[in-house]
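Please fill in the sequence for the structure shown.

STRUCTURE ENCODING:
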């Protein structure tokens, strides 16, 4: 079994749902539900990394380790990088990023992502994806697609419909062709600590700025990303007021 740590980046600011990290769901703040899912995994340590004193106090009140980080991080990955440096993690330490707005994340998916990175020592990152089953999903630019090589390493991530079935889509784009394989990327990441410490120093490249996908920075700078393929989509997280009500209904009626 691989030894890994989970870090939950919990930023106070949210454009679509202000204050969502502390939003009440079935008697507990959203971020605490996510932390409890992380605690149910095989992680040896769960850390909530936040830029907000209220979230910090909430985490401690619920018995979770927390670290107050800078406010000006451009991404959750940069926040994890500060955690890795501040806490002096060994370069080989595996750290899984569990989003604070994922209160329904499966602890087993956390385990599998960490183990996938441990099993591929030439990878700096492991992430996951599942099969796309509809043309609506495939052509949706909000659905990030990933294509992999024969060993399971990412070749490219895109909001565009990839791979492109040229002949089939020239005839009909209303449905996916038979035996067609496309993957929907899941934003679950396991990192090696050495990569996290390097990440903020890597300049953004053309691909990342064009697609607005920070994982492309790793590929542009020669880092390998292993993609674990799962059979089905994880339960959705919370980005909007409608998502919050959906998750509240799910957890209150479970």
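FILLED IN BY: designer on duty
SEQUENCE:
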């Amino acid at each position: 079994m691989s030894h890994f740590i989970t870090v939950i980046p919990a930023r106070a600011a949210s454009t679509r749902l202000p204050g969502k990290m502390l939003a009440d769901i079935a008697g507990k703040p959203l971020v605490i539900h996510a932390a409890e899912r992380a605690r149910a995994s095989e992680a040896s340590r769960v850390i909530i990394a936040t830029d907000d004193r209220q979230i910090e106090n909430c985490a401690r009140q619920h018995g979770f380790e927390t670290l107050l980080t800078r406010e000006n991080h451009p991404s959750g990955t940069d926040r994890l990088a500060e955690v890795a440096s501040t806490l002096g993690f060994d370069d080989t330490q595996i750290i899984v990023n569990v989003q604070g707005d994922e209160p329904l994340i499966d602890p087993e998916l956390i385990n599998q992502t960490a183990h996938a990175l441990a099993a591929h020592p030439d990878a700096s990152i492991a992430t996951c994806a599942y099969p796309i089953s509809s043309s609506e999903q495939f052509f949706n630019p909000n659905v990030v697609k990933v294509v992999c090589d024969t060993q399971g390493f990412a070749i490219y991530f895109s909001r565009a419909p990839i791979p492109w079935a040229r002949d089939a889509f020239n005839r009909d784009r209303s449905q996916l062709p038979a035996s067609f394989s496309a993957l929907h990327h899941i934003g679950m990441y396991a990192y090696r600590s050495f990569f996290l410490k390097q990440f903020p120093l890597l300049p953004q490249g053309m691909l990342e700025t064009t697609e607005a996908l920070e994982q492309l920075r790793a590929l542009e700078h020669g880092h390998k990303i292993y993609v674990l393929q799962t059979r089905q989509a994880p339960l959705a997280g919370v980005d909007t007021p409608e998502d919050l009500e959906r998750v509240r209904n799910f957890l209150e009626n479970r």
